[in-house]
Fold each of these.
Amino acid sequence: MASHRRPKQPSRTRVTVLTTAAAAAVALSSQAANAAPSEKPSKDEVKAKVDKLYEQAEQATEKYNGAKEKQEKLQKEISTIQDNVARGQEEVNELRDGLGLMASAQYRSGGIDPSLQLFLSADPDDYLDKASTLDQLSAQQVDALKKIQEKQRELAQERAEASDKLKDLAATRSELGKKKEEVQGKLAEAQKLLNSLTAAEKAALAAEQERASRASERTALSSGAPATGRASSAYGAAQSKLGSPYVYGASGPSSFDCSGLTSWAFAQAGISIPRTSQAQANIGTRIYSQSDLRVGDLVFFYGDLHHVGFYAGNGQVLHAPRTGTVVRYESINNMPYQFGVRV
């Protein structure tokens, strides 16, 4: 007869654990179902965040421009020094060759002048100990030796200067790379926010920008006192670039950042001004009252002066605003005005 055994019952402890786990799972599911979904930021909130990121990107852009300008300056200086060193070494070689020819001629005539022995000696210090040697140096030979010594000292100084500048250049290139990454990071973050908007929200933002641009242009076209002289030429050059896209680090002729536009425009008028907005703030007479501004004056914004444009009259500024925009007119009151500069 077959034996039937009763199945082993789970222990009371195990049942308790399983029951507790199941209850917890049900509770979590219920909470998740009843929790209010995270609210998507509104179009205006996204715009505010994006504008802030663009401002931070522009701050980094001006630092990037400064590092880039310094890099270009150092490269030119190093190139000049290296050319000078090469020419100086050629002069030293020619002077040495001249002394070598003297030695050869004297050897053929029966002996080498003691002064040339001094120069060619493996141990010139020992030779100099012989006081009689100095009496045997001709004025021409003394002059030749002095020229070689002076030129060698110059070359040593220039080589040391080039070495220091090369170290500075390496540090500047490192800074340039960091600032570029910072700018790109801010722009990528802003683009991610913009991508979160619906097609309708993106269209609404674009329409707002277009209306603001048209309104500013109409106001600027009826501007007050025109610029004069080279400021007029620079301002006219900037006007010719209305609609050109903003690109960080760009200085024309087809795209610009803020200081790239102003430096390019003045270059068209025959005036070389610094590349960055902070440096441009120090090149002319400062004008603190907006009522004293003239068309063509440079105008600076934000406490760290990271933005610059041209005063366009009637409370308007002509500038390259930020990524995603073009060179356009805009109200001077849209940004924290610091002062103007008349170049």
Amino acid sequence: MTIQLAHVSIAPPVLLAPMAGITDRPFRDVVARFGAGLVVSEMVASAEMVAAKPSVRARAELGYDAGRTAVQIAGREAHWMAEAARIAEAQGAAIIDINMGCPAKKVTNGYSGSALMRDPDHALRLIEAVVGAVKVPVTLKTRLGWDEALLNAPQIAARAEAAGIKMITIHGRTRCQFYAGAADWAAIRGVVDAVTIPVIANGDITDADSAALALAQSGAAGVMVGRGAQGRPWVLAEIATALHGAPAPKVPTGAALVDLVAAHYEAMLNFYGHDLGLRVARKHLGWYLDAALSPAQLRRPVLTARSADAVLALLPEAFDHPCERAAA
């Protein structure tokens, strides 16, 4: 199955969600190499992108598979959103995605992210500005609504489609739920019924079984995987195999897993610089160790090592142990 957005083919329709502090270029590269229809950057603040703040521009930096990379922008002013979209397009982004779903208080207090669901007229002005600024497809990521009293995703989706949005991703929770409870995939069907463009289901999709159930309940055209990919960058490819017959990924174990983690770790050091990279990489190392069922006595030295050489020297033992072999 393929989702076609102008010149961009999303096949398989299994997408990597934008996650702040996680879906940086090194992580997106790892996921893309296993196989994903689309990978999405961390949310980029539009005004800071235009101001050329280095750390913000780095979030939008394209990598291994630029033709399958969307850059997600956020903001509350149409001018800055349009300018940020133009910059991302000029750098090679295949798609511009508009963030209208982030629930974080520091975002919603600035009237960005999911706060825009409380003011659909203003949200539409931002959408129109971005669509009018670029030639690449523009997509939208949002939630079911602000809270249970304002479940307006279908209405917003219909207006967004009329304004030129080519695909919509719906996280099956309200903003006020944050990430609590369970995603309501069935509620996404209201958005599917309201538009003719592809709708992607998001929220609590962690494996092939949950992906299949999300599609069945929502009627969506594809799924987006977020936290389920942490420590398991191959999971999108596994879902694509089960649901769409895509080639099965070779899930690394033992020495192959050590090589993967080491390469990802070194890519992070190159991307961020040694000192910052050492700190940022720890969460990814922790997720890999969790997925491999590494025991605490092997985890702790890896996550507390003070040099990259020490971390790399500890990886073989941390990932090649009886628990990891049994899980494989």
